[in-house]
Amino acid sequence: xxxxxxxxxxxxxxxPALWEKRTDAMLILLVxxxxxxxxxxxxxxxxxxxxxQEYDATTYYQKWIRAVRTLLIEQEIITxxxxxxxxxxxxxxxxxxxxxxxxxxxx
Length: 107
Prior knowledge:
By secondary structure, this protein is an all-alpha fold. It has helices at 18-31, 40-48, 52-57, 60-74, 80-96.
């Protein structure tokens, strides 16, 4: 955010988590020449439309995956109902196998 003092930037690399790697791979596939589901500019538009609190509260890859979700629905590649149904199935499967699921709502 231009002009605001948030202190020094941590420029140390970190090993991306598996979900971050998958987010990156999904984005490459969706914007690539073969699929071209949407343009990277559309990602930027969605991310820039986040309110300041929402933007500040999310990490780099959280912004990406949320923008991908929004664009898949906007482009009518998948409906919100289909996505919600898939999330419910995955959550049930994870819980069945003893994996913990964060119950935080995704705006």
